[in-house]
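Readers of this paper often ask what the protein records in our data store actually look like. Such a record has a labelled line for the sequence and another for the backbone structure tokens. Nothing more is needed to write down the fold, since each code stands for a local backbone conformation. The record that follows is passed on verbatim for readers who wish to inspect the format.
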Amino acid sequence: MTIHPRGPGEPDTIGRYRVIGALDAEVGFRSLLAAGPDDSLVVVRQAEAELLDEPEFRIRLRHSAVAAMRVSGAANTTVIDVDADADKPWLASVFVPGVRLDRAVAEHGPLPVPAVRALAAALASALRTVHAAGLVHQRLRADSVLLARDSGRLGEIGITPVAGPPTTGSVTALGTPDYLAPEQALGLTITPAADMFALGSVLAFAASGRAPFTAPSVPYILFNIAQREPDLSGVPEPLYELIAACLRKDPAARPTPGQMLEYLGGPPSAPAPWPAPVLDDIGRQQDQVSALLAALPPVVAPVAPPARPLPEVLAGFGQRALDTGRRVARSGLHRWRAATPEIRRALAGGLAALLLVVVGLTYWATRPASEPPPVTGLTLAQLRQTDACAWLGEAIGDAVPVAPAPLAADTWKLDQSPSWGCFATSNRTSLSLELGTEDMYLTPNQHVVDGVPIIDGSAAACTRAIASPGAEGPAGIVITLSPPSGVKGCDGIDYIAANIARSLSSAPRVEHQESSLALVEPCTLLDRDLVAAKIGRLPPAPTIADAHTCQWNGSVQLSVKLVSKSRYTSGTELVTISVDGFRLYVDQPTSTKAMCTRAYLIPQSETETVEVSVHGAEGMREDYCAIAGEILRSAAEKLANR
């Protein structure tokens, strides 16, 4: 989505949200970027006048928003607020930086095969959640799909109950008809299978740049959808079977979201393999949003001033008492000289007590204010030295309060993850603690534990994060809880997150060997000039994806990743090559020709590995393998010279 300056006619506030910019218009809605009371960013969608002419619009909007609030999941946009009774009804959802699919394809061309597969997995995962809530989306289109940094996202506008009547709005109200299902075009009963048909059309557009039923006029498009076979001539062969199955005329013959995820190998993994220009667009939008938020004037609320700390109160009182004591001492000296011996003895006791009080208050009034600031996050360098499993074990405490019953500390099994994090399991419940992991995919909702802001996403998300300080903020501590299948809710995640937050200053350190990759800043292993010579012009700085990954975006995407254990260098079916005596481990070619990875096993370690990956256009794998090998060799030489 594109962020535009707030126009002169835009409202300053909508509900409890302050408007700071305008976004791309949607059919029937004006979209605005706004900040909540806690400065979290939201998208406020305000209904246009033509929708208000429909008698039941306000009722449908309220029901749609309430339904959307029931839907969770990383690939769904979270609705958090609605006012259907306002003069201009609106609803608010969490803002996620990203590029609309229709804009991405229009500006940068069709997505490569790996990106389309990742998008398919994300949208199938989102639809599975929608359908599990008893809903049908009905508005899945190229302009309602967002390419965020971590994954594809599905917009929420237009969700209606499965049991409700077929949509009766006009094609204009529905938006472009290119992504309708035959049953929608013919006015028949809508089922979840209609969303799968729309998904097939969206994926065909993403892969080829052309909707499969497009035509010069709306009636012609609707005729094609209802009667003709889709035009998939521009769809790459590896994607043809997947897309064609979704576009079957018979709703019962289309795959379900779960079947599609099984075909694709499971839910998407982050980060998504978007082309470098798309990632650059997302990065620029994130910078723009940060600038808008930084320029937002603070809200001056009529609240009572906070209570002053006791030392500060005593210091102020002490200064006044000190001045008074000096005056009393001068007066007492005159009296001393004129007093009898008996009176002098009485005055001596009083002056001694007064002297003790003055000395004490002088200390409080004059001591330096050298209290260290509170710890609210750990730097990536600190996280590289932290023992994740020891820390998670401490956070578990006596028992984790999960449903249906707490899990005692001695039931948890802890194992180190490949990125030097920790993975714990107990009775089909799992916990993970990753240190220095990118947390941009989380929404900005926060709560505070002992002064530490915890990014908590939506109420239904079982993930919490604590950002690193300063410029390293996009990467931090990420805690995830996965309950057993069939168990709803995230009981226990806030207990673990709070214990981690309270122990930031005492996080256990691990005694790594000086040669361990765990301590290495990955970007120091890449020679900028060499990288630029291989992948073209580079941005001013690399992307710090996490504590152990560094990424450069040029004409292609190049990343170096340091892991404690790699699938390329461990196991039984390993493939190695030797280039001028330098031994490299290679990945197995897959159906895609758009990516290549080369790995280097550290000689003094049995498992620690450097991985270099190059990802770009389809059909260039051999070129990418040559680049990855040369960059990896340069990185290995830098390691040897450390």
User: Anything to note?
Assistant: The two ends are 44 Å apart (CA to CA). Confidence is low (pLDDT under 50) at residues 159-174. Residues 310-338 form the longest helix (29 residues).
